[in-house]
Fold Large ribosomal subunit protein uL23.
Amino acid sequence: MANIDIKHYDVVVKPVITEKSTLVSEFNQVVFQVAKDATKPQIKAAVEALYGVKVLAVNTMVAKGKTKRWRGQEYRRSDVKKAVVTVADGDRIDVTTSI
């Protein structure tokens, strides 16, 4: 990992570790929270550079923030962009360990 650009860390914010995201790991997929303005080619380049894997596909989605209440006051959670990254068969990303 000698040639990692700092902008890759701005694109990939963090891995998403939920029950659903661990189920898709059977299909060589990993879910990441990414920057809201990140494009699919940027996400692909960042994951390949940070984890040293071959990315086959990137699917993105924007989860809209929910309206919540706290002490009678309403507030809205921020929107979150997620990317489902499919890696090649021989490659694997272990999100339980840090980069």
The chain has three helices and six strands. The chain has a mean pLDDT of 90. The radius of gyration is 15 Å. The first strand starts at residue 12 and ends at 15.
